[in-house]
């Protein structure tokens, strides 16, 4: 579910490049990031599991603690398997650098 934000980046690519044909092969290749020259991925950020931890601890809904833990694990796994700079999975960092691909990827 977290990876649904890849669809947003792909549709931004389609819109910016005036493409009217969807290609699943191109989508799954991830090449649209390079052509966009930006990476948005709004749901891929450490801020979200941080806020989820705060919500669950403040509401005492401990039975749902797996949600922020699994969210954090997904982000952490992405952090170490993608060739990106250290702060790239912070949405605030990406916002400050205008989602610039060259400043996100190594």
Describe the protein.
There is one protein chain. The chain has 106 residues and is mostly helical. Helix content is 59%, strand content 0%. It contains seven helices and no strands. The chain has helices at 5-16, 24-29, 31-36, 47-59, 66-81, 91-96, 101-104. It starts with a helix and ends with a helix.
Radius of gyration, taken over Cα atoms and rounded to an integer in Å: 15 Å
The major β-sheet equals: none
In round numbers, the mean pLDDT is: 92
How far apart are the first and last residues' alpha carbons, in Å? Answer: 26 Å
Given as residue ranges, the uncertain stretches (5+ residues, pLDDT < 50) are: none
**E-strand count:** 0
**Category from helices, strands and their pairing:** mainly alpha
**Into which percentage range does the β-strand content fall?**
under 5%
Summed up, the helix count is 7
How do the SSEs run, as a string of H and E?
HHHHHHH
